[in-house]
Specification:
With 455 residues, the chain is an alpha/beta fold. Helices cover 54% and strands 10% of the residues. β6, α10 and β7 form a beta-alpha-beta unit. α8 runs antiparallel to α9 and α8 crosses α10. The chain starts with a helix and ends with a helix. It binds adenosine-5'-diphosphate and magnesium ion. The site of magnesium ion has 3 residues, from α7.
Length: 455
């Protein structure tokens, strides 16, 4: 007879395959069976936040899996057990000067535009106008967790996702929410700006001032950290800035257009810092979310459109939120100019836009991005090396050449240094099969595809 804990661990093993790694680590890893009371499985969780999330978001999924391993279970009950988790992997060091949490009433209710946020933050990026859907809900939940308990469980916060999906909006909204309270001194800067200011300080002999200027903040938000790639000196200085703030339990928030491990030429110690806290991603919004976003944007502008026009737009524009927003503005402008909006006009406008945004790529581009992503020399693609670190990226290239450019198997073989078409077929099939099971690979390929088209 397996013990309840063993049953739970078996279930966790299965759940680990079903949900993304970020989700698993955040919500499931730190759970334990407290007891099995007849048909009720009582699971201990570290905090109310996790409890709520598991109950609301994952109940059915977990229940189904658990039922598969323990047939008699009829119900799962979550109980908060902080003491159980004191020995959790790396608890944050004791707090010395922890600022009070941002109260929820002031933090993310509509602060209005009357009080412009200080500094570098755009006052229009707010949580109240951030649409939440399945594609970004983990990131959003983490955001709420951070605002409640800054500098604790979700520190640092590493947010990644493709272009135009709301990273800057969300992290600036956090900054704006923090600024609602006087206790927070927020610094928002992009990584490339950080680098150029640092270089400037070197030129003017004011490195010390540059460094010290960061010690007065207790919330540091760095946008687009992928721009640290290859900038050794900036990484060095940022590493120290990071450590300095982190040791004081100050909240650090980072965004990137790709996972930390896919940032080329990033020092290992920095990468491990980036991966040492909460990681969340934002995916492409699904159709329903796209409709919700359009609806929200219309509401903000005090404008209306017929529901079928909204839906048609959401159908047609499936790239990212920035483009969705751009299309909406085009359509509204047309409406204003002509005083009416026939459906045909919308179709024509959207077609025009999509022709403008027509994505193209090339053999060279795919090779460049994939080899950059996996950090290998492009020449190795042409060889027959079977080392996994080379052969896998090579297979990814083959798969993408087929998917994105519709190359035939023999052409791919020829382009990649004269390989047999059966090798290519095998590779494409293998990647396709892997994609069915591997959340990580699926995400990697999303990032890669995004890169291929977006620069
Ligand atoms: P990223 O930094 O990921 O490239 P941005 O944050 O700049 O993307 O978002 C692009 C545009 O889309 C911005 O105008 C932003 O306000 C809008 N946007 C993105 N995500 C959302 C969302 N969830 N709800 C409402 N607007 C959004
Ligand atoms: Mg951005």
């Amino acid at each position: 007879m397996p013990t309840p804990q063993e049953l739970w661990e078996t279930a966790l093993g299965e759940l680990e395959l079903e949900v993304s790694r970020a989700n698993f680590n955040t919500w499931l890893r730190n759970t334990k069976v407290l007891e099995k009371r007849d048909e009720i499985m009582v699971i201990g969780v570290p905090d109310s936040f996790t409890k709520e999330w598991l109950e609301k978001k994952y109940y059915d999924r977990i229940f189904t899996v658990l039922k598969g391993v323990a047939r008699d279970v009829k119900k799962i009950q979550y109980e908060i057990k902080t003491d159980l988790f004191q020995t959790a992997p790396s608890p944050p060091p004791p707090l010395r000067e922890r600022p009070k949490p941002v109260s929820s009433s002031t933090a993310w209710t509509q602060p209005g535009l009357s009080k412009p946020a200080k500094g570098e933050l755009n006052p229009r990026y707010l949580l109240s106008n951030f649409v939440v859907g399945p594609f970004n809900e983990l990131a959003y939940a983490a955001t709420l967790g951070i605002l409640k308990n800054p500098g604790e469980k979700f520190n640092p916060f590493f947010l990644y996702g493709g272009i135009g999906l709301g990273k800057t909006h969300l992290i600036q909204a956090m900054g704006n929410a923090f600024l609602e309270s006087d206790e927070y001194r927020v610094k928002y800067i992009s990584a490339d700006r950080f680098s150029s200011e640092y270089i400037q300080s070197v030129k003017t002999g004011s490195i010390q001032e540059f460094k010290e200027s960061y010690s007065k903040f207790n919330v540091l938000i760095i946008d687009d950290v992928q721009f640290f790639a290859g900038k050794e000196k900036s990484q060095e200085i940022f590493f120290h800035t990071f450590n300095h703030l982190y040791q004081k339990n100050h909240q650090i928030i980072l965004s990137s257009d790709r996972p930390a491990r896919a940032i080329p030429m990033l020092q290992a110690r920095l990468r491990s810092r980036f991966e040492g806290g909460m990681i969340a991603d934002i995916a492409n919004p699904g159709l329903e979310s796209r409709v919700a976003i359009l609806t929200k944007k219309l509401e903000e502008r005090g404008a209306t459109l017929d529901q079928d026009i909204i839906e048609m737009m959401a159908q047609k524009i499936d790239t990212n939120i920035r483009e969705l927003q751009g299309a909406l503005i085009t359509v509204l402008n047309y409406c204003e100019l002509h005083g009416s909006l026939p459906k045909e006009a919308v179709i024509a406008l959207l077609d025009q836009l999509s022709a403008l945004n027509k994505k193209t790529t090339s053999f060279e581009r795919i090779v460049e991005i994939v080899t950059q992503f996996y950090n290998i020399d492009p020449q190795l693609l042409l060889t027959a090396s079977r080392r996994k670190d080379t052969s896998f990226p090579r297979q990814v290239v083959m798969y993408l050449l087929r998917r994105e450019l519709e190359y035939s198997y023999p052409i791919i073989g020829k382009k990649l240094g004269g390989k047999d078409h059966s090798t290519i077929m095998y590779a494409c099939k293998k990647i396709e099969d892997m994609l069915k099971d591997s959340d990580d690979l699926r995400k990697d390929l999303e990032v890669i595809t995004d890169q291929i088209y977006n620069f």
